[in-house]
Structure formats: structure tokens, C-alpha cells
Amino acid sequence: MGRQTLYTSESDDSIATLRIPMDDDDEIKKFKRLLAGVGVFLVFGWFAVEEMRYTLFGSVADATIIESFETTPSGR
Known about the structure:
The protein is mainly alpha-helical and 76 residues long. It has a domain at 22-59. It is 45% helix and 8% strand. Strands 1-2 form a two-stranded antiparallel ribbon. The two termini are 61 Å apart.
């Protein structure tokens, strides 16, 4: 990392504020990471809501066995 220079701007006579120059590329990377995290959170939230809906409002279905097979171990 390079050396950062601090700039002062005196907006008031008694208080000097320090400004650090922004690194736009770093801020864009942080924003993209935040956006990806929010997207993952929303996807997981969607699946959680769907599971809850299935648990609360799902119904039992009757099944009919059509065919059955008896198997033997292959001995492997």
C-alpha cells in the first residue's frame, strides 16, 4: 500500500477536519462484496421461507405401490 496523505480543510475557525482521499477501486470492491452477501442472504432466506411454508401448509398424499422387487446382496 502506498503512503496516504492527510488533507485538512478548515470549515470552521476552531475545528479542522481531516480528509483521507478515497480509494474508489477499494470502495467498489467492498460494495460488490456487500451486494453479493445480500444476494446470498436473500437466496437462503427464500429457501427458508419455502421450507416453512411446506412445513406449515403441506398436505399428506396417499401413495399406491405398483411394483415391488426383492433383492439379494451381491457379496462384494
